[in-house]
Q: What sequence folds into this?
């Protein structure tokens, strides 16, 4: 088990390095002047430009630049944004809000998705099942920003149940609506995955055996069906954390949440490449770790998976 | 032991039937012996595709989505048939955020343009991006996945890691990074957007194709072709890929919808198509500032977008049912 963990962790490293290299390569080494975004249309004097180039190591060869960047990453020194503020500080400032939002969305989609999917799967072909299937397709199809604006308009503006936008404190109640919007699409995926898995497992041999042994229906479904149906769902949720981070850009924009997504978006609009690269790197790191966590979850969910 | 004397199911079994307990042994009376050991030989062999088509024709989901998709394609090809209004010619600021008026069924945008005309003319760019991104992803991802699954070994290891790297970047995040590149920042159009979506969209198709190819690779007919002297690549193209196509088609159909969403999301963020290109994403971006006074300017392009995406996702769903006989029989 420990060996398996170490191996999985080691496998993460090339993926992480590759992804950061890819981003770094895309942003910093393709043709185009990186100082243009700072200097604006008026342009800088050669001396200023030279100092900017020195600050971001732009005169070094690409590999040296990349290794300097990695070195900074390992020592939590991500450089500064164009206004001179340390990027690490910016991220540390906005990260808790987005983490709260993402966890709320994840909990919502996991709990609601599994419960609805379970009932739909157990009642396959009934009215509830078909309704859920159609509704989930609609939810998947409606883009998150259309959904977000409609919910904001209906619940925030027309019905006035919550504030349409989130204040700087980002309290739990304020974040409920953004988290629902953020998690809604994944909720539809989770429920469809759960439903399929439940239908498949409900007719499996071990479930028939469990029923034949005289176990209560509650125990058969709760332990035998559910536990085995959770495996694809866990995989999805791990991969979904990345999608949630991406979705946060849109959701945080709509509800004016001061989080990672909003910061990233502003950096994109201002052309602050160092900030964009740093934030995306952190997001990739989280994504990789979440997938590692899912691998661990397998061990608990399915003892048949051997960790040789 | 089958209960021959009592062919009706016992009451207890009937009570628990909501929870599927399969009949282990069919009652003898239900299955005539003739049915089990005679085969109707003049029945033409049905291919997977023919069987799938027969199944599809009966599915309401397929019929609805097919009609919708044909309608959308028609609107994209001949926008002039659906509105008399040129989308940008008669924009009057005096009409700004106006409600429906004679000749202007859906009202006006903030700029005083006819919403219906803009929605109709915006179809083309969204559909073009989705269609060509999907074609590109199927070609690139399909080839990489097929090679990776068919040849295995170190080729597979390298390509799989490469896929993992791109997979670690979610589509929208990757696209946001890539528009930082000066080349893409300065050349924003339908084709660069297709390229961006392709760059981050191929690993999924590659994974699906790889799995499907591995399943087919060891089939008897491939071994037969190989032992008859067909080259590895020839066997891959002629025998393996056509038989591994079904799951790829399903995912590609759904991807088309996802790419349309991605395009509009990027346009909505202001980093997709440039503002002078008419697209639903751009219209939603323009409408969000006046959401509280004129929500309909956001609603209509949003509805068109959602319906289009929905029809492709429904089509993918129907295809999955039809092309996966294992799932259907359950």
A:
């Amino acid at each position: 088990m420990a060996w398996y963990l170490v191996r999985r962790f080691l496998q993460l490293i090339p993926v992480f390095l590759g992804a950061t290299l890819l981003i770094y390569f895309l942003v910093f080494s393709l043709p185009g002047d990186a100082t243009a975004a700072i200097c604006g249309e008026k342009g800088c004097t050669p001396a200023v430009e030279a100092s900017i180039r020195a600050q971001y190591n732009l005169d070094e060869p690409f590999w040296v630049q990349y290794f300097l960047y990695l070195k900074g990453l390992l020592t939590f020194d991500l450089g500064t944004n164009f206004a001179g503020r340390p990027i690490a500080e910016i991220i540390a400032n906005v990260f808790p809000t987005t983490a709260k939002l993402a966890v709320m969305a994840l909990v919502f989609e996991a709990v609601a998705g599994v419960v609805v999917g379970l009932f739909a799967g157990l009642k396959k072909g009934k009215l509830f099942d078909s309704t859920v299937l159609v509704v989930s397709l609609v939810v998947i199809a409606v883009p998150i920003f259309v959904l977000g604006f409609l919910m904001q308009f209906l619940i925030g503006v027309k019905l006035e149940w919550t504030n349409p936008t989130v204040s700087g404190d980002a309290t739990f109640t304020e974040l409920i609506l953004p988290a629902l919007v953020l998690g809604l699409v994944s909720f539809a995926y989770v429920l469809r995955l759960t439903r399929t898995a439940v239908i498949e497992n409900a007719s499996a041999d071990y479930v028939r055996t469990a029923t034949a042994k005289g176990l209560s229906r509650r125990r058969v479904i709760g332990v035998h069906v559910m536990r085995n149906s959770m495996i694809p769902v866990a995989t999805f949720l791990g991969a979904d954390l990345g999608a949630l981070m991406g979705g946060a850009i849109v959701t945080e924009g709509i509800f004016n949440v001061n989080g990672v997504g909003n910061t990233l978006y502003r950096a994109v609009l201002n052309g602050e490449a160092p900030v964009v690269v740093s934030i995306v790197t952190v997001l990739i790191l989280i994504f990789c770790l979440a997938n590692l966590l899912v691998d661990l979850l397998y061990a608990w969910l399915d003892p048949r998976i051997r960790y040789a | 032991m089958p209960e021959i004397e009592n062919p009706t199911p016992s009451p207890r079994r009937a009570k628990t039937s909501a929870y599927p307990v399969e009949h282990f042994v069919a009652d003898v009376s239900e299955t005539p012996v003739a049915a089990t050991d005679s085969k109707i030989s003049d029945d033409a062999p049905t291919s997977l595709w023919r069987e799938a088509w027969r199944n599809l024709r009966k599915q309401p989901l397929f019929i609805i989505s097919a009609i919708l998709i044909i309608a959308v394609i028609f609107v994209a090809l001949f926008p002039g048939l659906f509105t008399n209004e040129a989308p940008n010619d008669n924009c009057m600021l005096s009409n700004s955020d106006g409600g429906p008026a004679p000749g202007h069924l859906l009202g006006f945008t903030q700029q005083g343009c006819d919403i219906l005309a803009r929605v109709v003319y915006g179809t083309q760019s969204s559909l073009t991006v989705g269609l060509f991104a999907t074609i590109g992803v199927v070609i690139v991802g399909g080839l990489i996945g097929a090679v990776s699954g068919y040849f295995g070994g170190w080729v597979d290891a390298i390509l799989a890691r490469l896929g993992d790297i791109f997979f670690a970047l979610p589509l929208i995040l990757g696209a946001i990074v890539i528009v930082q590149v000066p080349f893409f920042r300065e050349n924003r159009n339908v084709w660069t957007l297709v390229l961006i979506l392709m760059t981050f969209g191929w690993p999924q198709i590659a994974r699906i194709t790889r799995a499907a190819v591995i399943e087919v690779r060891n089939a008897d007919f491939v071994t037969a072709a190989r032992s008859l002297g067909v080259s590895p690549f020839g066997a891959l193209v002629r025998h393996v890929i056509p038989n591994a196509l079904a799951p790829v088609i399903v995912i590609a159909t759904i991807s088309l919808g996802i790419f349309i969403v991605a395009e509009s999301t990027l346009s909505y963020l202001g980093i997709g198509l440039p503002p002078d290109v008419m697209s639903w994403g751009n219209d939603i971006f323009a409408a969000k500032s006046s959401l509280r006074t004129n929500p309909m300017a956001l609603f209509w392009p949003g509805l068109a977008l959602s319906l289009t995406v929905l029809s492709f996702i429904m089509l993918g769903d129907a295809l999955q049912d039809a092309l996966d006989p294992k799932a259907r029989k359950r």
About this structure: Chain B is about 65% helix and 0% strand. The radius of gyration of chain B is 26 Å.
